[in-house]
C-alpha cells in the first residue's frame, strides 16, 4: 500500500463551511471565524489539513515514505493539528457539527476539490504581505465557492460590511453576497465604486470627474436600488472615488468587519483568475476579505 492510499479521500458534508488548517496562529483565527459563521448559518464545519504528499508520488523518497513508521508520524502530526482545531471550534459552539480530514494532496488541490460542495472556504492570512503564489491567492483563483481569507481583526464587531462595485458581472454577484452578509450580521453596508483602476491620485490633475461626482453617485444608487428593495433592513452608504480601488478598499478595511470583492473586475485579463484589487486585499486587508468568483453566491 502506498502512502497515498493510506490517506483516504473524504468529501466534506454538503454545504459545509470548510477551513484549511496548518497549526499556525492565523489558521486558528480562521477556525474561530468559520466556527462562528457555521453556527450562525446552521452549517456543519469541516476541518482539513493537507500534507502535500501527492506530489511525491514519483520521487526517490517514496521508498522511505512508504515506511509504516513515517506514515504513522505524518498522521500523528496532522491529527494533532485537526484535533486542536476541533477544540477551538468547540470553544465557539459546543453543539457545532464538526468533521475532520487529513489529505495527501497539496493544500490548494484539497481546498479546490472541497469547494465543489462547500458553502464557503476559509483560510488564514498568508504569512507574508507580498507572498508570491500563496495558498490563499491560488485557492481564491480556482475555488468553486466564495473564499474568506480571515485577515486582521476577526472578532465579532458592529463595523460595516464593505463591497467593491465596478459594474462587472462578478461585481453584481459580490454585491448580492455583500447585502446578504450585512443583513445577516445586522450591520450597515458601505458600497464603494471607483471610476477606474489607476493608482490613487494618478488622474487627479487630468480627469474631469471628481470624488463623489453627482452623476456617478446617481449611477451607483440606481445599481443598488434593486438590492435595497430586497434588503430594506440594510442601511447603505455610497462612496464614489476617481481612482485607486486597491488603496481605497484597503483603507476601508481598517473600518470594516468584512470586505467583499469579485475575483476579477472590469479590467480582468482573459486567462487570469484573480484580479489585482482582490489580490491586493487578500495580501493587505486589515479585516477578513470575501472573494467571490463568477456565478457564485452563498445566499
From TrEMBL:
Residues 17-151, 159-293 form the UspA domain. The lineage of its organism: Bacteria, Bacillati, Actinomycetota, Actinomycetes, Mycobacteriales. This is Universal stress protein. InterPro entries: Rossmann-like_a/b/a_fold (IPR014729), Universal_stress_UspA (IPR006015), UspA (IPR006016). GO terms for molecular function: ATP binding. PANTHER family: STRESS RESPONSE PROTEIN NHAX (PTHR46268), UNIVERSAL STRESS PROTEIN RV2623 (PTHR46268:SF27). It comes from Antrihabitans stalactiti. Belongs to the universal stress protein A family. Keywords: ATP-binding, Nucleotide-binding. Gene3D superfamilies: HUPs. It holds the Pfam family Usp.
Amino acid at each position: 500500500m502506498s502512502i497515498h492510499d493510506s490517506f483516504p479521500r473524504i468529501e466534506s458534508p454538503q454545504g459545509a463551511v470548510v477551513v484549511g488548517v496548518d497549526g499556525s496562529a492565523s489558521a486558528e483565527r480562521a477556525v474561530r471565524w468559520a466556527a462562528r459563521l457555521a453556527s450562525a448559518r446552521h452549517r456543519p464545519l469541516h476541518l482539513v489539513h493537507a500534507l502535500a504528499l501527492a506530489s511525491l508520488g514519483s520521487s526517490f523518497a517514496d521508498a522511505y515514505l512508504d515506511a509504516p513508521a513515517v506514515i504513522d508520524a505524518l498522521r500523528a502530526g496532522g491529527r494533532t493539528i485537526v484535533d486542536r482545531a476541533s477544540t477551538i471550534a468547540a470553544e465557539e459552539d459546543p453543539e457545532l457539527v464538526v468533521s475532520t480530514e487529513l489529505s495527501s494532496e497539496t493544500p490548494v488541490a484539497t481546498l479546490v476539490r472541497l469547494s465543489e460542495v462547500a458553502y464557503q472556504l476559509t483560510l488564514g492570512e498568508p504569512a507574508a504581505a507580498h507572498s508570491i503564489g500563496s495558498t490563499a491567492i491560488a485557492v481564491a483563483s480556482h475555488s468553486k465557492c466564495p473564499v474568506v481569507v480571515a485577515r486582521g481583526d476577526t472578532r465579532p464587531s458592529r463595523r460595516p460590511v464593505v463591497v467593491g462595485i465596478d459594474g462587472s458581472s462578478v461585481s453584481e454577484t459580490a454585491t448580492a453576497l455583500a447585502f446578504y452578509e450585512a443583513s445577516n450580521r445586522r450591520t450597515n453596508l458601505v458600497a464603494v465604486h471607483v471610476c477606474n483602476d489607476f493608482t490613487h491620485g494618478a488622474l487627479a490633475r487630468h480627469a474631469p470627474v471628481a470624488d463623489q461626482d453627482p452623476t456617478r453617485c446617481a449611477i451607483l444608487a440606481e445599481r443598488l436600488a434593486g438590492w435595497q428593495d430586497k434588503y430594506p433592513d440594510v442601511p447603505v452608504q455610497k462612496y464614489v472615488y476617481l481612482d485607486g480601488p486597491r488603496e481605497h478598499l484597503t483603507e476601508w478595511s481598517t473600518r470594516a468587519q468584512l470586505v467583499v470583492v469579485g475575483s476579477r473586475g472590469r479590467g480582468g485579463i482573459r486567462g487570469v483568475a484573480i484580479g489585482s484589487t482582490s489580490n491586493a486585499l487578500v495580501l493587505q486587508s486589515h479585516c477578513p476579505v470575501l472573494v467571490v468568483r463568477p456565478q457564485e453566491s452563498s445566499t
